Amino acid sequence: MTTERAGADSASATLTAECLSHWFIDQQSGTTVHALDDINLAIQPGEFVTIVGPSGCGKTTLLKILAGFIKPSQGAARVHGKEIVKPGPDRGVVFQELAILPWRNVHRNISHGLEIQKVPKVERDRRVSELIELVGLKGFEKHHPHQLSGGMRQRVAVARTWASNPEIILMDEPFAAVDAMTRQTLQEELNRISVETGKTIFFITHSVEEAVFLGDRVIAMSARPGRVKEAVVVPIPRAERTWESMSTEPSMAHCVEEVLGLVRGEHEAALAAEGTSVKED
């Protein structure tokens, strides 16, 4: 494994952040919070980039800027060189909180975005059927969310985002609420789907092991104000990764140790500052 500058090779990148900083006003105290400072990132086509750092370091703020939900105070985020100023169909977002509709079954939840786009029913049904097969939900098409396990509901959320065929998928701790065994299964499924579809993925997590298992690169961030501390390259091709194989792979353990070393001091700094600053992940 190697460490490198996170902002390298921006000319060929799908998604970039350039000299990006952000401040916001805390609604309770009225104070100004410096969330992000001089972020430079370049994510290549089809690359899976994971991002870790202490709570409050601005990970979710960065994702919201990349999604177009908020505008940075300084700098810019771009897709293929075009500045991001609002949400767009080229970017899909999966949050930790499930964005699925309880009154719709699996098939109709996944098809919801396609209906909004007015995709013809025949094409819509074909794409939804392919995704149901891809995420392992065949046989559950008519089930409603309350009839599914937490892991299955998360698969619906992922498939729903994939259905609209965005080039870039932004994911904010999508597996944090499920149990450990289900989480590993979902990680393997997401890895497989990302390899098969070639999507560019930006994935936030608090788990270093998850970050290393999924990522082509792991971006370690500092405590607030969030800065890119280092990028760690994971040398094992994603097509070859399963938890069974990775658990005995020395380079996986080395990467985990390296990333932990990068973020451990930042977690301690964040804990020391807790109680005097506002949390905004």
Q: Could you characterize what this model shows?
A:
With 281 residues, the chain is of the alpha/beta class. 36% of the residues lie in helices and 23% in strands. The protein is built from 8 helices and 11 strands. Strand 10 (217-221) and strand 11 form a beta hairpin. The longest helix is centred in the last third of the chain and has 24 residues, at 250-273.
Q: What is the mean predicted local confidence, pLDDT?
A: 88
Tally of DSSP helical segments = 8
Rg from Cα = 19 Å
DSSP, total strands:
11
| Helical/strand content category | alpha/beta
Helix content: 25-40%
Tell me the major beta sheet: 7 strands, mixed
What portion of residues belong to β-strands? 15-25%
Provide the spatial order of strands within the biggest beta sheet.
1-11-10-4-9-8-7
Spell out the helices and strands N to C.
EEEEHEEEHHHEHEHEEHH
Shape: globular
Low-confidence stretches: none
Q: Ends: how far apart?
A: 28 Å
Summed up:
Helix content is about 35%, strand content about 25%.
Q: Can you lay out the helices and strands and say which pair or pack?
A:
Blueprint: E1 2-4, E2 15-25, E3 32-43, E4 48-52, H1 59-67, E5 74-79, E6 82-83, E7 91-94, H2 106-116, H3 121-134, H4 150-163, E8 168-172, H5 180-197, E9 200-204, H6 208-214, E10 217-221, E11 228-233, H7 243-246, H8 250-273
Parallel strand pairs: 4-9, 4-10, 7-8, 8-9
Antiparallel strand pairs: 1-11, 2-3, 2-5, 5-6, 10-11
Task: Give the key terms.
281 residues, alpha/beta, 7-stranded mixed sheet, 4-stranded antiparallel sheet, 8 helices, 11 strands, 23% strand, globular
